[in-house]
Amino acid sequence: MKTKTEIKAPVLTDRYGRVHDYVRISVTDKCNLRCVYCMPAEGLPFFPDEKVLSCAEIIQLTKNLARMGVTKVRLTGGEPLLRTDILEIIAGIAAIPEIQDISVTTNGLALKRLAKPLYEAGLKRLNISLDTFDPERYKEMTRGGNLKRVLAGIEAASALPFEKIKLNTVIIHGQNDHEMADFLRYTFEHAVNIRFIEFMPIGQNDQDWQAKYVGIEQAFAVCRANGWDYQPITLSGNGPSENFQIAGAVGSFGLIHPISCSFCENCNRLRITADGCLKSCLYWDDEDSIRASIGDFAAFEQRVQQILANKPENHQMALDQQDQVKNKKPTWRHMSQIGG
Ligand code: SAM
Ligand code: SF4
User: Fold this and answer.
1) Nearest-CA neighbor of 305 among 59, 15, 7, 8?
2) Ligand 2 center–CA 193 separation, angstroms
3) Between 47 and which of 51, 54, 104, 270 could a Cys-Cys bridge form, CB atoms 3.0 to 4.6 Å apart?
4) Is the CB of residue 41 less than 8 Å from the CB of residue 117?
5) Structural domains in the chain?
């Protein structure tokens, strides 16, 4: 366990006073699913291998960011467990003294095989995406996924001493919103944190995304309809999620509602894409490549500070704001090309 004294003073502060100590690194844009809210049905052209950051580059850029005050890292994708060198990447990052927390977001398909090696490589926390308990619906929502494999992965991970496992559940109107009660019930006997996530219009060119959107504070109405008492709780982690526990449950649930309740004023995140661009905000198309400077700390630091200096104050995902902004463009990337 690393001690607090090893943490450097935070230096990544933007013009709104927000301190950035958390980086989400997309280690690949490739994926073995095509989730309806994340990728178009026809898929996306993947970056050629040489465009994707190598294991050595990912570790070095994390070392650089650690010197600048970053203490928490999440690996994402695409599907991060498709990288054949994912264990080396995790071990390399876990060995950086300043890094206090390393986690992965995964669709869970490879977890049965990889949960133990990931833990042994130094992984602390896992978020597993799961939007339904119905095998047919899972196949539809992921365009081909096998629910059994994910459930086996969750079971394998649950048997290991990871810090709390979180399940990411994106709620889509007419697809899985009627399953919120099933997810909440799951927390009665499973020591996981179910994170209901609002559908976000990232890379969604179609204008009908609002029809898919559900405000996830609906979870409270579901609790009340079932006579379940719930209380706010505090959970460790980096997320903007507000957490609650139903009386008597061993697990808990969290709400991530970027649309109905923006959390930009406390944003502490940087995002690195698989092709080496730094994004200061998930929503906007502001980004710049940091790849060429990874081996030169002074140049790297200058580049990161430049990008951070222009970090937008907030996103404009809210339903009533989207058409108001004419002078800025939302990102061209789909969610699988950023990592969420
Ligand atoms: N493949 C991994 C997975 O699915 O967990 C990691 C990458 S995925 C892009 C990261 C997270 O973003 C997942 O939990 C996914 O459910 C979420 N996500 C993808 N598209 C989204 C959208 N349009 N709105 C909200 N969350 C989304
Ligand atoms: Fe792949 Fe994850 Fe996107 Fe689903 S949410 S398509 S698993 S990157």
Assistant:
1) 15
2) 20
3) 51
4) no
5) 22-337 (3.20.20.70)
For residue 246, the one-letter residue type is I
Which residue's CA is minimally distant from atom 20 of ligand 1?
38
Query: Does 5 score more than 50 pLDDT?
Result: no
Look at ligand 2, atom 4, and give the residue with the nearest C-alpha: 35
Ligand lying closest to the C-alpha of residue 168: 1
Token output for 98: 């300043």
Q: What is the pLDDT of residues 43-73, one digit of tens each?
A: 999 999 999 999 999 999 999 999 999 999 9
Phi/psi of residue 70, nearest 5 degrees: -75, 130
Condensed to tens digits (0 to 9), the pLDDT of residues 211-257 reads 888 888 999 999 999 999 999 999 876 567 899 999 999 999 999 98
CA 10 – ligand 2 centroid, Å: 32
E strand or H helix at 24: strand 22-26
Q: Which residue has the tokens 């990544």?
A: 12
* CA-to-CA separations, 203 to 105, 212, 289, in angstroms, rounded: 19, 14, 19
Whether 61 contacts 290, CB under 8 Å: yes
User: Which residue of 142, 168, 202 sits with most ligand 2 atoms within 8 Å of its CB, as the best mutation to test the pocket?
Assistant: 142
125 CA to middle of ligand 1, Å? 17
Q: Which residue has the tokens 């080396």?
A: 88
